[in-house]
C-alpha cells in the first residue's frame, strides 16, 4: 500500500491528557518491556571517561550511549512530542515531518525554537547530519532508508549518533507490535536520555488510563470493528500490528486479523468495499490526518456503506494517524477514544 496509515494528523479530541512535565514520583518502577523491542542493561564504565554508559537493546541490536545525549532529533511529530513530554526541549536540535501532524497546542511554544529538518517526509541525509545529532529517535526503520536519500543507521553511527527506533516499529515487530511497546520505549528512553523519573511518571499515567478503559468495558460483549484508511477513493484495511492491538485493547473485535492472507506480510492492505460489506462490522474506525480528511472519509463511508450496521447506528470513529505511530503516548489516547466510540455509556 502506498500511502498511508503512516501519514499523520490529529483530531481535536484528546481523551488521554498528556501533561507537559511530570514531576515528583521519583522511584516508580517502570512497566515491563515487550519482547523484540528494547531492554536496558546496568550502567557500565566506558574506557577513557568518567561517565557511566547506558546500553539498550533495540531492534535486535545493542545501542550504547556513553553519556546523556545533548543533541537529540525526533524524526516525526509523535517522537518530538514524547521527547518534549520527557522535559528535553533544551536538548532537541531537530524535528522532522512537521506537516504530517500538529503538536499538541500546549507543546507548540516549546517546539518553536527547534529547527525543522523536513516537513512532509523524513529529512534528507545532509539535513539530518548537519545538525550533528548524538541521538536520533524514529517511529520506524523506514526513516533510515538510504535508497530514499535518508541517513542510514550506519551513517548516523559513524557520525557519532545513537539510533533508537520505537519498539513497535522495529522491522521484526511491525506485524506484532502492541500498545505495551510504548512502555518498552519509555523504559529505554528514560535510561538513555537521563529522564528516568519523568519517563516513570508518564508510564504510570498511561497505564492508569489503559486500566481505566479495561475496567469500564469489562463484561461487555465485544462489538465487531473494521479499521480502515481512505486516500482519495482507495480504501485500505488494517489487520495486524499496533493498530490491531489498539482495537483489541478498546474492546473491539476486529473483523480482519493477522490470520487473513491479505495481512500475512503487511499490517495494512488495499481492499474492495465488498470485503467490508460482507463482514458488516458494527463500528468503523478510521484514521485521519486533518479535519478535511475526516469529513471526506465520513462522507465516503456513509455514501458507500449506507446499509452497514456501523453507518446505520452512526458508529463511525475517527482517530489520528499520528496516534497509531509506534512509540507515542497517542497509542493510549487512541485506545480510549475508540473505547468511548464503541461504548459511550461506559464513560
From TrEMBL:
Q: Which UniProt keywords apply?
A: Signal
Domain Fe/B12 periplasmic-binding, by residue range, is 71-346
Residue ranges for the region (Disordered) are 38-62
The signal peptide here is 1-34
Ranges in a coiled coil:
none
- Give the matching InterPro entries: ABC_Transporter_SBP (IPR050902), ABC_transptr_periplasmic_BD (IPR002491)
This protein's source sits in the domain of life called Bacteria
Q: Which family does it belong to?
A: Belongs to the bacterial solute-binding protein 8 family.
Name used for this protein in its record = ABC transporter substrate-binding protein
